[in-house]
Amino acid sequence: MNQQFEKRLAYFSEQTISATFTGIRRGIEKESLRVGPDGLISQKDHPHALGSALTNAYITTDYSEALLEFITPAFDEPNRPLRVLENIHKYVYQNLAEDELLWVASMPCAMTDELSIPIGKYGSSNSGKMKEVYRRGLGHRYGRFMQTIAGVHYNFSLPMSFWRHLQQLDGFSDDDMQDSISEQYMGLIRNFLRTSWIIPYLFGASPAICESYLQGKKSHLDQLVPGTVYGPYATSLRLGDLGYSNNAQGSMDITYNCIDGYIKGLESAIQTPEPLYEKIGVIKDGRYLQLNSNLLQIENEYYSNVRPKRVTNSGERPTKALQRGGIEYVEVRALDLNIFDPKGISQEQSEFVDCLLIHNLLTSSPAITAREEAEIQENKRRVVDSGRHPSLRLIRDNREISRVRWANELFSELKLVAELLDKSSETKTYAKTIEKLSGWIEAPEKTFSGRIVDEIKQRGDGFFALAMDYSKSHADYFKKSELTESVKKCFVEEAKQSHIKQKQIEESDELSFEEYLKAYFA
Question: What is the CATH number that goes with domain 3-159+196-237+287-292+328-521?
């Protein structure tokens, strides 16, 4: 057992100190495509009743006008984000067109061509134009198909009481408090990168896709049934080469070994010209094609399974926010949509991620070398492509180790973290979750991806039909579930106020769009 993990676990297991974990704050962001009755991407505008996609605090859009994104506030009550997420779904279904559905899978529905994927619209303000131009640039750079992929983001932070206790244990000063907090979060992130292969193994839910997504291109996938291709042992194609991938980003020097290095790497990428993107051009016939022709248009273009974050002020860039105040929370981006849960994420998944992140934080976290970075990427590739293979081997400390052995070692320590979290909240749910999921280590058929492949084989009608049936089933669930009047009133008022806020922003603009961009990137 890691010595730091053992020391910190013992310290935080003391009765009066363990209660600090009740202050953990969690928030969820979940994406879903709107689709029509034929299963194709909806061509309809963002419903007016859902408010302004620019300013609504709960409901916005991601790349496409049809790609909804639901956002919960951060709460210290473990299951409250899930309850809010469920209420958002209920409200949305009350205001979707009668024939529309929310697509339950991370990989998109049946695809026709790129022009059938409408880019999000955010109004005439400078900030609204910037969001739209950024998305237009993503389409030109990587194609629109990649931008229809959906996922769940899990936001996680520790309370100040935790950091005060850690300060007493580790001895850092008040003057160094925020720097020390950022340093600890970066250590958590490095350990998450080392262990995050376990998430697609357990919860990867995109082992198969519609053949239409490939648009005739060759791939390494096999035919499962006509119209559906898959990896026989794949877990999450969303996280592989067919999903969020960007070869140009391989040339970036972005490190997680310290917050300053991370910021410097992103800043450099935003300012470094990329010949491939220069060929696209920035403005053509008076119309912006992308925000700039650099490696990254903005920070969010950098694809990663985890990000250090701080809430930004109006008009503030994410790296500037990190420079201003350090890391406030961590955003986990490795979760596929859970097609088996109407919300797209379950309580068990939330509890597991809590345990994993606390384990990552309590464990010592040396700098990631170039060799280890290559190991991390190779382990991700192996689990994404062949995670359910019974004899799969991963790489740790320059040596191969079986997935089963590494997972068992990890779970033996996660059980201790689960006991700690149960002790803090006087529950038994964390231990039950870890015990249940430990049974999946040597039973890959119990994982999400294993269940999906088995269901498709049994049905014989393909990924599209399976996802469509789950989409209809979840739609029925939400349509039959009533919102309380107070909750409904909250969403209605937020939608109303969001339209007012958008109009105020549009009326208050004084700069030209060119001047606005120059000021933003200054």
Answer: 3.30.590.20
